[in-house]
Amino acid sequence: MTEITNWFQSNLLTLNLNKTIFLQFLTKKNKEIKIQIVASNSVNTNINSTKFLGLNINCTLSWSDHIAALTSKLNKACYAIRAVKSFMSLDVLRTVYFAYVHSVIFYGIIFWGNSLLSANIFKIKKRIIRIITNTGKRESCRQLFKQLQILPLPSHYIYSLLVFVNKNKELFMSNSEIHNINTQYKHNLHLPSTHLTLIQKEVLYSGSKIFSHLPLCIEAHSNDPKRFKTKLKLPNRAHLL
Fold first, then answer.
1. How many whole angstroms separate alpha carbon 188 and alpha carbon 94?
2. Domains in the chain: boundaries
């Protein structure tokens, strides 16, 4: 912090310590280390969660804070859609869904989409779909999603993750870049070595694993982003459903 403060001063800049936080990332097995960051006679104590670029992050990366915030937003959207559904056609309601529900869920889903707590978001999404289609709460949503051409949450997560991997290939390495062994998996993306479940759920690991299991008829179009997205969304996308 001293070096950072000195750099700011040398470049005629000021670090706003009132907006600077210290967040210590931990696994469940680790214990928090009591640390105070002191700079310019100001003390920054450790906090357990913060909002960063629209994502609510906590010290264990459980995404509980972020999903709680999403739940609040989506419940409000659910109420609003229920209030206006009798005045709007199905097509208009679908447009409202993409404006007030899809846009909220889509943001950052590659980070929190495989959290166990994401099931709570999926429940709200299904409730909204039933409201739009005027169906009972016990009726299956599987056909309703297909009817509205809206992906279920798990499929939405997989789709977004695959698009991200395909767009950012430079962040990933293939097995052939790691070793020279000629195996049938040499062109697959290399899985980072880890035993932590937390790491296995993050973008680089999950993205590598899922992308390597893509059918060849889809992976063959990876150099054409638009066609790649189209192939992923084809009606026979059994791998996403």
1. 38
2. 2-47, 62-150, 159-232
